[in-house]
Amino acid sequence: MEKRDEAGEYHSKDFEWEFLQNIVENDPSLSHHLHHHQDFSNYSPNSQPWQDFHSRHSSGKFFKERRYLLKEFPELVSCGENSKLLEIGCGNGSTVLPILRGSKNITVYACDCSSEALVRTKENIDRAIDLVDNFRSFCCDFSTSEFPNWVACDHCRDKFMVNHSGRSEGMQVNYKCLLNEHCIGGVEFVTLIFTLSAVSKERMPRAIKECFSVLKPGGLLLFRDYGLYDMTMLRFEPEKRVGFREYVRSDGTLSYFFCLDTARKLFTDAGFIEVELEYCCVKAVNRRKGKDMYRVWVHGKFQKPFYN
């Protein structure tokens, strides 16, 4: 499943994705997941469903620490001193906590569109770690809003933007920026862990460009999310479709399922260089029902170009 008890037990190649693709695309009962041409309902997403979700699940039942992330993204452990990470969509802290435990060199800036989620994150961190001084959280919906200037001020955003020829834009030194103690001048890492799938497809390009704007040149965006034909996708009924490969849950939250080509285009169109991109395919068994469960996630690493 999505988390194992120990990171060392994690594996991601139980089956080939094409094996599952063949099963799904030849099953008539699943044909409603395959077609582009369909009239979708007019669904306008906002942050309220996630606010309600975290209010309902404040007991911590849904908290599963993602310890495998340090194995999947070892850069978070081997990074240099004073590295900065922006975790987007921190939820209840299931991503933040193993990173804080695993690397003493990283300062984590965590955001979520739900203020309730930020409360849960702080509670879980306080329970697990004493005297955390390298963590800061803030409320932000990156699909509709810019990150605050203390993540990377307007000058830093301009300086760190790169055009498609790879050349830097706006390299003039701004001494006011250099003297601004609240400006951290961009981050070395951005993590998008099961976050982008909850953003409407039409807002994804804008959201990814916002991630690009606050990364330092050479910085990494670390991506993990739901993959095409994951078990969760196949459970959705036809009326839950609000777009191609896009669904709305009963609680009003969105879920999109990525193929590799879609993920690649979204990130490279924003200016990123693809470093790694693959399906993670994990087979689990429901012993009570005697059924195989096929989980599919997309794993990716994307780098912001260095200046030429």
TrEMBL record:
<dbReference type="InterPro" id="IPR026113">
    <property type="entry name" value="METTL2/6/8-like"/>
</dbReference>
<dbReference type="Pfam" id="PF13489">
    <property type="entry name" value="Methyltransf_23"/>
</dbReference>
<dbReference type="GO" id="GO:0008173">
    <property type="term" value="F:RNA methyltransferase activity"/>
</dbReference>
<comment type="function">
    <text>S-adenosyl-L-methionine-dependent methyltransferase.</text>
</comment>
<dbReference type="GO" id="GO:0008757">
    <property type="term" value="F:S-adenosylmethionine-dependent methyltransferase activity"/>
</dbReference>
<comment type="similarity">
    <text>Belongs to the methyltransferase superfamily. METL family.</text>
</comment>
<protein>
    <recommendedName>
        <fullName>tRNA N(3)-methylcytidine methyltransferase</fullName>
        <ecNumber>2.1.1.-</ecNumber>
    </recommendedName>
</protein>
<keyword id="KW-0808">Transferase</keyword>
<dbReference type="GO" id="GO:0032259">
    <property type="term" value="P:methylation"/>
</dbReference>
<dbReference type="InterPro" id="IPR029063">
    <property type="entry name" value="SAM-dependent_MTases_sf"/>
</dbReference>
<keyword id="KW-0489">Methyltransferase</keyword>
